[in-house]
Design brief:
215 residues; 34% helix; alpha+beta; four-stranded antiparallel β-sheet
Amino acid sequence: MPTTNFSTLVDPVASVVDGCPTPIVVNALREAAIEACSRGLIWPANLVTVTLTAGVGGYIFSTPVAESVVAQLQSARVNGVMLDIYTDRQAIEFDPAWLSTVQGEPRAIWQMSPTVYNVTPVPDAVTTYDLKMRVYLKPITTASAMDTDILNDNQDLIVHGALHRLLLQPKRPWADANMAGYHGKQFSYKLHVARSRTTLGYDNGNLLVTQRPFA
């Protein structure tokens, strides 16, 4: 899928923070985009099929978009059966022996990090287990770009987030606490709208998740 550089949004930010170097503006835009994706879940990705490996409980996400990782799991099914999505604490409470020799049909999944997820019980060799997931993505901390459609649809949100960060920077000639407050409120409002839109099901996208055993 096509991507667009964060640098394309420099002008509307630089016009407010006069004198701010372009690399600092780009960094603020990237940080705002990461927060928008993490909290607003604005970058959805469609489910795909992953064939699980017998005896392996941990796997690594692989995304089709360079410089992106998984922000959050939305849903998962194994052979058509919906899995419970656990937090780390729930996984330990409900199945403390998930990496033991106990194997079977996976019933739950949880995300360990933006790159790693686990299933429990560990798949057995009795049958083939096909896992389908739907997730939300976010840029990595060194990303230079993100999905074009998502960036375009959320341009105002990301610009407000970047301006809030920059205007709060102490001892900078462009610092302005009052303006920072304004842009912070706009960012929060638009983030709430974006999250509500996601909750209502307005999300489209594509994701290729390939399975690799987690050593």
